Amino acid sequence: MKPEVLIPIIVSICAAAIALGSLVAAVVSARSARKSAATAHQALGIEKERREDELTAAVKAAQDARRANLNASLINSEYLAITNDGQCRARNVTVELEADERQGVTPRMLDNEAREIGPNSREAWKLIVHMGVARSFTVHLAWNDDDGSHEDSQLVHM
Predict the structure, then answer these.
(1) d(C-alpha 71, C-alpha 93), whole Å
(2) What CA–CA distance (Å, rounded) separates 156 from 151?
(3) Cα–Cα distance between 37 and 41 in angstroms, integer?
(4) At 112, is the secondary structure helix, strand, or coil?
(5) What phi and psi, each to the nearest 5 degrees, are found at residue 69?
(6) 138 burial class (0-12, 13-18, 19+ CB within 10 angstroms)?
(7) Is 107 exposed, middle or buried (0-12, 13-18, 19+ CB in 10 A)?
(8) In what order do the strands lie in the sheet with 70-75?
(9) Contact, 143 vs 94, CB < 8 A?
(10) For residue 88, what is the DSSP state?
(11) Per-residue pLDDT tens for 64-113?
(12) Where are the beta strands (DSSP E) in 4-78?
């Protein structure tokens, strides 16, 4: 073949190769951009969840600061202890005991006056324990705190 015919063919092949290379580079670049966008979107979602978790924790902490958290337990099977694990004073705390009659008599308390239980503190009521008293019973608690009136029932065992 003559060089006049070969040169334009070679130039056309080179131009086509360059165009093909540019097309491949554009496709790879577009895929990379899509992956980067997806990663950025995922990171924004994670950040949004983290902020929502922080907000939920802050709201819970604010609510906990306004609430008393009372728990019943026994001390040497002679005293009923009511512990306030909350950060707020429990006022007008009343306690009632109830046992399943099939398991024995409901224990009684020496005094049953309403009391206040400060944050992170404990009050104890003397129990009158004798033969025939149930070994487990339900403690019904009622109290007021900065969040309002509350009731709870807990099972205790001797």
Answers:
(1) 12
(2) 16
(3) 6
(4) coil
(5) -130, 100
(6) middle
(7) buried
(8) 70-75, 79-84, 121-128, 108-109
(9) yes
(10) S
(11) 667 899 999 999 989 999 999 999 999 999 999 999 888 889 988 888 88
(12) 70-75
